[in-house]
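User: What would this chain look like folded?
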Amino acid sequence: MKNIVSLIDANVIINFITKRDDSYRDACVEVMRLCAENAFEGCVAFHSLSIIWYVIRKQESEERARIWLNDICDILTVTGATQEQVKKAINNSSFRDFEDCLQDECAVHANAQYIVTCNVKDFQYAKTSVVTPDAFVDLITGDKNQ
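Assistant: Here's the prediction, encoded as structure tokens.
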């Protein structure tokens, strides 16, 4: 496994599961495949699981949603943030979306080098480097080819 730790945003995981029509759909699938193959260490923010559950339950049975969440937790390491980090996120007015600010704090908590997201523009104030799924796949597979 590469010594790269990356937090995978909920939108990447949702694209992977639902195969929804998104310009990053194929790259999202590849990100998850690479993580499952231990090409890098992937993390998911604890609070993302409820977001993913909500989306999956609109399309799948409760049983199928549970299977998906278990599979995600087998591929990715669940991470959180400290109370102090959550309070920083609450009081951080730089982010337009509080959930994205929580993602960034969870990435910091996990010592992640990257946040992989389909919405890079929402993370312009992130403490962690932010990349699109396709850029991340290039980063990971480019390292393999060297």
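The chain has a mean pLDDT of 93. If you want, I can go into more detail on any region.
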